[in-house]
Specification:
With 188 residues, the chain is of the alpha+beta class. 23% of the residues lie in helices and 32% in strands. It binds nickel (II) ion.
Length: 188
């Protein structure tokens, strides 16, 4: 099933999401629905809060970015109860977007080295290192679990300039090719 995507300004995007248990009801279906929702919206990552669920689950598939970086080809993963163990390396600027902030793209600085622990979709414990573009996509999705949006990370000047756009987006003044839920609407 394709979920509507929750849009900037909705309180669920600002919650600190909670870990889940292995027997979380319908987990496999949820993960499969998250991929379906992400692909439908042409995204490369989706975190559970973006479909109204404040739990620490996100999915990524970087394949559409393979033209820019061949490492992204087949970079399809499920992250459950993820923790960042180490974040370091060169700080790199890159333009980002987010399905919860339609049609807005801004440059964000992020570390280029990441060590993470998490459970994958088969509940295998994982402990791995990511660099470059992968580290960026993961950090963006991970931030959603802590209630952080990429627009929080732009420079204070840019953030001031964005205020009107973000306010418009939260009022539903945007075009998107996928279904959305704006603040004040019930999450289904
Ligand atoms: Ni996002």
């Amino acid at each position: 099933m394709i979920y509507p995507v929750v849009v900037y300004g909705h309180p669920v995007l600002r919650k600190v999401a909670e870990d889940i248990d292995r027997d979380y009801p319908g987990l496999q279906q949820l993960v499969s629905d998250m991929f379906e929702t992400m692909y439908h919206a042409d995204g490369v990552g989706l975190a559970a809060p973006q479909i109204g669920k404040p739990i620490r689950v996100f999915v990524v598939d970087g394949t559409p970015l393979a033209e820019d970086d061949s490492e992204m080809d087949g970079f399809k993963m499920v992250f459950i109860n993820a923790r960042i163990i180490e974040k370091s390396g060169e700080i790199v600027p890159m333009t980002e977007g987010c399905l919860s902030i339609p049609n807005l793209r801004e440059e964000v600085n992020r570390e280029s080295f990441l060590r993470m622990t998490w459970y994958d979709g088969d509940w295998n414990p994982r402990d791995e290192v990511f660099t470059g573009y992968k580290a960026r996509v993961i950090q963006h999705e991970y931030d959603h679990l802590d209630g952080v949006m990429f627009t929080d990370k732009v420079s204070p000047l840019r953030r001031r300039l964005l205020q009107r756009k973000l306010s418009d987006i939260s009022k539903g003044k945007f075009e998107a090719s996928y279904k959305t839920i704006i603040p004040g609407q019930r999450v289904r």
